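I am still learning, so can you show me any protein sequence you like together with the matching structure tokens, please?
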Amino acid sequence: MNQNILGDKKKTSFDENLADYVNGIFDKMPDEVPEQEVVSSDFPFSVKDLIERGNDHFYWNDEKLKNSPLIVGGSLMRCLSWVAEKNGVIASLPYLIAGLSVANKTHWLKRRFHTALSEENVGLDANGNPVIIIVHGGGILSSKIEYLIFDEYLTPQNAIKYSTGDWNNLLNGELPNGERIELYDVDDVKRGLIPDPFGRYGIVLDFDKVRNTGSEYHNKVQFLSNDLVIARAGTLEHLEQYFDSFASQKVGNWHVFNEINKINPEQSQGRMLLINQDFNGLSGVSGMNKHARFVGVPQKNNPRIDVIIEG
């Protein structure tokens, strides 16, 4: 990526030496973010592909970038570069839930957390009411890399704050790169009306209703009937098996919507979702300035290659 990523010192708190360090990292990445989709419109990838050929060697937790969204951005760019070369996809949360539902106890999916290509966004709708839009398969954050470079975008809850234009466009199903996505509601998920649960789309939720659901461990009945869980899963097909795959009476589902409500629910913002390897479950609390580990899945003619891309 032959450009001075942190050249505008007005947009970052990094000192000059650190800016040079970060630019050096990005010099080793592609000249451009690959134009091909990070998810396929008809998603010709199976759960078996994820289990047998998935690659999660894109972890980044650089101490020099501590408290910077570049930690998440770096992991995403590494994974994006790899899947572009392999004609693959980056796994969304529904895809990872499906994988964990069938993975054995020694599989790498059950050995460490993973960051999903699913983002949870909050802002006001056209009527001024707060809403949640969960975008699976790549949304604002993966189509506008600027948000994952400059630390001025971090909110008090360490989410990424959006421009008014980008948020308003998302309300109409449009991403910063001009791509359009279908928007559904949680009843569409329950009725199985999303044709491609592992693909790219959005789910709109009532903010006040969801924030009053516990950010905590849930028993099976609570977990399977929780609207936030269902929206994060994108489909009911793998959800019960996912819960049952853990030797636990409860599985976690975590959010920060009450904290957002107390400080500034009017500020449109979003964060990547995370899935734990165990009964700690689904997380929307990890800061966008913390560690990240995305998962890439190559096309079937590309075997899994366990190579750590050097930073």
Remarks:
- The radius of gyration is 18 Å.
- Residues 70-85 form the longest helix (16 residues).
- Confidence is low (pLDDT under 50) at residues 1-19, 29-41, 304-311.
